[in-house]
Amino acid sequence: xxxxxxxxxxxxxxxxxxxxxxxxxxxxxxxxxxxxxxxxxxxxxxxxxxxxxxxxxxxxxxxxxxxxxxxxxxxxxxxxxxxxxxxxxxxxxxxxxxx
Length: 99
Known about the structure:
The protein has one helix at 32-36; strands at residues 2-10, 23-29, 50-53, 62-67, 83-88. It contains 1 helix and 5 strands. It has one domain (2-12, 21-88): CATH 2.40.50.220.
C-alpha cells in the first residue's frame, strides 16, 4: 500500500469491456516530504501512476493505493489492471522513522 494524492483524471474514448464504468485517476505518490507537509504542493516528484477508482476520490484527495497483482484481487474476472484505489483518507499523521 502506498499513499498518494489525486492530481487529475484520465478519460478514455475507447476501453476494454472490463473497464466500462471505471474511473481513472492520476496519482502523485506521497513520500516523507509530502506526508510531513515539507512539500507545500503535496505531490512528490517521479512517475505518476494511473489508478482505477471505484470509491469516488476527487482531485486533491489523499488516498491509499496498491499496485501489482494485489490490484486485481477485488475482481472475480481477469482484468489487466496495475493499480487500484483502496482507501480515501480523511486525515493522517506521519512521523519520520528513526534510523
